[in-house]
Design goal:
The chain is α/β, with parallel strands linked by helices and about 400 residues long. It is about 30% helix and about 25% strand. Strand 3, helix 3 and strand 4 form a beta-alpha-beta unit. The structure holds nickel (II) ion.
Amino acid sequence: MDRYGLIPFFEDLHAHPELSGAEHRTTGKLLEALRAAGIDVLDAGLPTGAIARIGGKRPGCVIGLRADIDALPIREETELPYRSRNEGVMHACGHDFHAAAMLGAALALKEREDGLDGTVKIVFQPAEETASGAKRMLATGLLDDCEEFYAIHSYPWFPAGTLGIKEGPVMAAPDRFRIAVRGRGAHGAEPNTGIDPIPAAAAIVLAAQHIVSRRMDPFRAAVVSVTHMEAGNTWNVIPEAAMLEGTVRTLHAEDRDMAREALRETAERTAAAYGCTAAFDWREGPAPVVNDAGLCADAKALAEEMGFTVDRQKGTMGGEDFSEYLNGRPGVFVRVGTGGYVVSHHPKFTVDERALVPAAEFFAALAMRRVKRQGQGEIRNSDFGIRN
Ligand code: NI
């Protein structure tokens, strides 16, 4: 039963998607609903996004819950009655679902506030798709006291009623590289008078394929993709330079360092073998998202008590800035089955609304449980420093 009107709230957000950093209407709707329920909204001083606080009246822990709220520059191709009215913008990653579910968790926790130990802070984060919103929310300092963090993410490959809870790495570090290969231009008929950067760039692309196949531990996952090449502009001129860019995805810090240095070396030395130079530029994305094993076990036990099916989702080499919240504290990135069976970031991506109310209830119950300080003799998993 949708006591809080979460389904119409979700449909309204879906119909009015907003791009990263421009979530003004979405933020307004969330603030309106939070304030109408008498929920404290902390002054983050940010143009979009919000932090709600519930509890703080009884001793206990401070737990953070995070939903992202931004949409993507995609033209929606679903036939939903509530499809996007904002041409060229679409909630194709379920962030409308996340916002509505965490609003539901906030409303449910507010109702149970008298029995709530500790404090729950609920983060409605802007700009996840540009990997900049988490840093912005953390920079407010308002989340420094959170001891654990939990995130919600829709998952199209599980039906409603199934949660994906898996310990260890669940999202990759999405790093970006750019390689500028410099040679010396010449007439296309006289290659000997110049230094052609194009064969050098091509050799770098091929050599880079060996980083995953020959340098990585075969039991670990990594991706090196060259996704963009540019060189020259006509048929009879050897250009001065060529450009390559792409992405490296890894799940462990040491693999990330290895792949970066291997790629740098491959670019520089391969270019040198062709008489060219290569300038290597590396833009680090968020760290991998690593779920805490102890907290996963507890979340899984709760989910099963509540009648959810718990499954181990497929791995993904996608990136997520939720890892910023887990810098120095444990947490879990929970995937909520939303059916649809169309990959996220696709124009036909949909969410099964039946997953919404149970997801809100789950995160409220999880927070109620995790804020409790354990009695003497009992120690929280995170006190053991169980990380992986
Ligand atoms: Ni997403």
